[in-house]
Structure prediction request, 421 residues.
Amino acid sequence: MKNFRSIKGTHDILPEDSYKWRHLESIVHQVCAQFGYQEIRTPIFEQNKLFSRSVGEDSDIVTKEMYSWEDKENSFLTLRPELTAPVARAYNQHNLGNLSPIHRFYYIGPLFRRERPQKGRQRQFHQFGIEAFGSNFAEQDAEIIALAWHLLTHFRLTNKIDLQVNSIGTSECRAGYRDALKQFLKPHFDELSEISKRRFNTNPLRILDSKNKKEQTILKNGPRISDYYTKDDKEHFNEVKTYLKAMNIPFTINSGLVRGLDYYTKTVFEITSNELGSQDALLGGGRYDSLVETLGGKPTPGIGFAAGIERILLLINEENFKEHKPVPDIYLICLEKEGIPASLSIAKQLRLKGLNIVSDPIRRSMKAQMRDANKLRARYVLILGESELNDNTIILKNLESGKQESIKQEKIVKYFDNLTN
Ligand code: HAM
Prediction:
């Protein structure tokens, strides 16, 4: 029979890596608390329409990447490909806007997109992200970006990353710009790729996102969205830039940055790293001032970002994790079957004191167990051999200093009490 394997584009996170995930997640919890963001957990699957309405009928995600199925009673469901729409859905469903004028959330969890797998691109991947509802002021944009920057600073990544920002204006601005862009591209229509030809009709702004060299050259002489900003768009974007400068957060303006999801308005941004290869986006986000209303709620501005956890982990230097690898305080070696009840009882009492105890459940030799203790980088070993059993003692060895002593069994718990206090 063929062995089972994980599904293409999905990965197991084994113990050799899972502690790194846990450490990263603990820093996310810590940093989000520092900024006053609270955790939200939403279901893994949602109604299909939630995503087509918000992310956009014509987006890559909705046209080709969603895992969707028809459930009973003709409901059409989808494994979440992103979390902004589910969080906005929850915000509406629980009428959170009535409780407080602002709500700031963060989340950590798995997402699903049927993309072609490659380094840094999976079909099940994980994001942490934040979403802030209720403010249309630029200091909220600055806070969102500052949180991303703070977190990446913690992992000493700021010299490996670039922050790019842009404003795609309000819908009023985009309507004018869309017409001008179409007017400009019309004479070049035959030179466009198939996908851009399609986007010419459905969502011409997405053509700006094109990686096609020829299209990029054509676009160089095209109209700029900044020429179509309303007074408010211009002011808002200027304020965002001023506030980022005030915090010494370096950024570049990328007028071609439009992002592939339809809900964005005004500020959009991405943090990329050229150490990541072709999948270089570490995180992306922006303002979505109409999303809550599109999903049936009261008009409420919002802004957020999401970061790919796998991609961040690819960038973080191993050194950052070294001291976070879990190690046992004590490796307990019992060499006699008759000693097992005593060793189990000692382990139980020590664990109640909060110590981490590992023991060998396959009755290996002293040498093999010592090797295991060293491999796990245990701080102490406790050895219960034949003579210790006979005189109710236990040997305590400090693996760092190599010092060894014999202690009465009934005193061992007290001994560690003194050590840990
Ligand atoms: P996104 O740009 O689609 O935005 O995804 C955000 C990040 O998730 C990317 O920058 C990347 O690091 C990671 N990512 C995306 N797809 C994959 C994949 N297939 N494999 C591995 N990592 C991936 C959003 O999802 C928006 N909801 C962000 C947002 C929040 N905008 C406002 N609020």
About this structure: The chain has 16 helices and 16 strands. Residues 82-84, 113, 115, 120-122, 125, 127, 129, 131, 261, 281-286, 304-308, 310-311 surround histidyl-adenosine monophosphate (CB under 6 Å). The domain at 330-420 is CATH 3.40.50.800 (Rossmann fold). The mean pLDDT is 95.
